[in-house]
Amino acid sequence: LVGDTLARLCHLLRKQDAAAAPAAAIAAQTMRALLCSGLLCRHFDFDARGHETSALTCDGAHVLTGGKVNEDVFSILLPFAKQTTSAKAVQYAMKGLGHLCIRQPELAVRCKDVLGRALRAGAGSSPVLKQQALANLLMLLKAEQEKSKALREQKAALKAAAEASGTARKTPTEGSLEVEVHATAALTAVLQHHQSAVLHSLLDGREAAVRREGLHVVGAMLTQGLAHPAKCIPYVMALELDVGPQGCAELAKKELRRQYD
């Protein structure tokens, strides 16, 4: 069922012109397909050995899912994220790519142009797309933190069991450790590339949601040791002047207390 669903979503997207705005009659379906295809890849490992299956597309054709599904879905979503005719389609393609990159973080490196365009400063940039780019980075940071925590807990549990039984137990496989190292390296490369744009998003005066999302990203970067405090703290302190009903002053103060109290 999961394979059939993904196959039909991808079939629908392949029939659309990624460079043009979706036709009004199928705009909603296209947005759902962009988002849900990424979500399915995030929560189900289609590329895992043994998950290959025959799936049915919308027109009744049988396709094989498995092997390089994440790569195929990425190649479908990326052109939608690069188009310039429909900001809504770009936003939903970015949502889908964000979920897909959690499954395969190294793909985020290949999204740097999409993220860079969304994060750029200036009157011509879209605050909605900037907020979505920041949300994608925050999702990646949280997912990486959860993976690292799970790996540490697994190693600690195995060590404790070995000490209790007096026998040697295997640590997590080298493959798992290697995957974790590659994921961390990919995330670090993406954040270093966009660090300046992320920091400047805290000074975006158009939308409080952009400043708030940027503050969450900076806080996560500081917590995980992926950014130097000397570069980030002045921007966070500047938000203490962002008062008002939708301002981020209290959130900035809370972040400073969380980091240094």
Give an account of the 3D structure.
The protein is mainly α and 261 residues long. It contains ten helices and two strands. It has helices at residues 2-14, 27-43, 69-82, 87-103, 112-119, 127-165, 174-201, 208-223, 229-238, 249-260, and strands spanning 53-56, 62-65. A two-stranded antiparallel ribbon has the order 1-2. Strand 1 (53-56) and strand 2 (62-65) form a beta hairpin. Helix 2 runs antiparallel to helix 3 (69-82) and helix 6 runs parallel beside helix 8. The N and C termini lie far apart (50 Å).
Features:
flat; two-stranded antiparallel sheet; 10 helices; mainly alpha; 261 residues
Largest sheet: 2 strands, antiparallel
- What separation lies between the terminal Cα atoms? 50 Å
Total beta strand runs: 2
Order of helices and strands: HHEEHHHHHHHH
| Rg value | 21 Å
Alpha plus pi helix count? 10
Low-confidence stretches: none
Helix content: 55-70%
Enumerate the strands of the largest sheet in spatial order, edge to edge or round the barrel. Answer: 1-2
Backbone shape: flat
